[in-house]
Amino acid sequence: MRMELLVLGCGDAFGNDGRFHTSFLVSQGQEKILLDCGASTLIRLKQENVDLEQISTIIITHFHGDHFGGLPFFLISSLFESSRRNPLTIIGPKGVEDRVLKLLEAMYEGTSERLQDLDISFQEYDSEIELLLDDKKIVAVPVDHSPQSNPHGVRVEWKGKTFAFSGDTSWTDKLLDLAKDSDLFICECNFVEQVAFGHLSYSELLEKQHLFQTKQLWLSHMANEVIYKTDFKLNRMKDGQRITF
């Protein structure tokens, strides 16, 4: 059975080209996985008429606002709009529960204690150790980005399909491990030519594209220079795009 990935947001932290923050919704049947939850994610979920009850799992790559800053909005919607009934698991790097609850309290003081009214659990992944959750196998690998954000790329095997996301990172050979034998690999691409710590460039990825053992390679987290570049030879995502794999 084929899966669908809906690009809720593929922009960078600055919203270049008016794009929304990073978030991808992977669906098979009625169950959905949310991969990252940037600050604008709830808006996009509502624009796409997504039922939050169908999202069983949220996986966070690192603690930057354009990747996990939308969780407080998701949670208050689940509390006060829909009185969520279905279980929800939020998975992320070490400290994910503490980080999310502190962010929720900073934005909506007094609401974190209300989460006990919902069936929500937090799980931490350990680097390069399989985490099993029902029929999902999740592996996270450390990548090269702001150390304070505890950055990881993630790989998910679910119902016979494998998809992976680099998170935010400069080049590391661990990206090849994430992508190996995957049906879909999403890779960040912030620059055209610049090579710098924390982010990747189109020139690097174009040179190394033959190393990725994946059926589909798609680029995300793009600054204007990448979005508007002509004569582009790799796949670029767009907000609202649906990709089957």
How would you sum up this structure, described in words?
The chain has 245 residues and is α/β, with parallel strands linked by helices. It has one domain: Metallo-beta-lactamase, Chain A, CATH 3.60.15. The chain is built from 7 helices and 14 strands. Strands 6-5-4-3-2-1-14 form a 7-stranded mixed sheet. The protein has a 7-stranded mixed sheet with strand order 7-8-9-10-11-12-13. It is globular. 42% of the residues are buried. The model has no long low-confidence stretch (mean pLDDT 97).
What are the key terms here?
single chain, 245 residues, alpha/beta, Metallo-beta-lactamase, Chain A, seven-stranded mixed β-sheet
Q: How is this structure best summarized?
A:
With 245 residues, the protein is α/β, with parallel strands linked by helices. The protein is built from 7 helices and 14 strands. It has a single domain, classed as Metallo-beta-lactamase, Chain A (4-Layer Sandwich), CATH 3.60.15.
